[in-house]
Design goal:
Length: 106
């Protein structure tokens, strides 16, 4: 993961700005680099395009958690529960639960 990968993904997004997978890929790259604040916008954009893209909720909640936005992290975990269940992958729900368990009580 490096800047050239981010540039490549941005170039692909410029060609197809409504591709939720590319937006997720960009946010994921930023998360992988520890650039959580920068990850938030492309992850939000991915969900605006495809609100059923369950894994995006995990990465977005993580980005919010890592940037100290606990309330938004909690909201994102809760919003992601429905898509995670509909996806049918129990691992998605497990990951959301792990994030939720780390968040301080409201």
């Amino acid at each position: 993961m490096d800047e050239s990968r981010i540039e490549q993904i941005n170039a692909l997004i410029a060609e197809d700005p409504r591709d939720a997978m590319l937006r997720f890929a960009l946010g994921n790259e930023y998360c992988g680099l520890g650039r959580y604040l920068e990850a938030i916008e492309p992850l939000q954009a991915a969900l605006a395009i495809d609100p059923e893209y369950a894994f995006v909720y995990i990465q977005l909640a993580l980005a919010y958690e890592r940037t100290g936005q606990v309330g938004l992290a909690r909201e994102t975990v809760e919003a992601g529960r429905g898509p995670a269940v509909r996806n049918g992958d129990p691992n998605l729900m497990r990951q959301l639960n792990e994030i939720a368990s780390r968040l301080p009580a409201p």
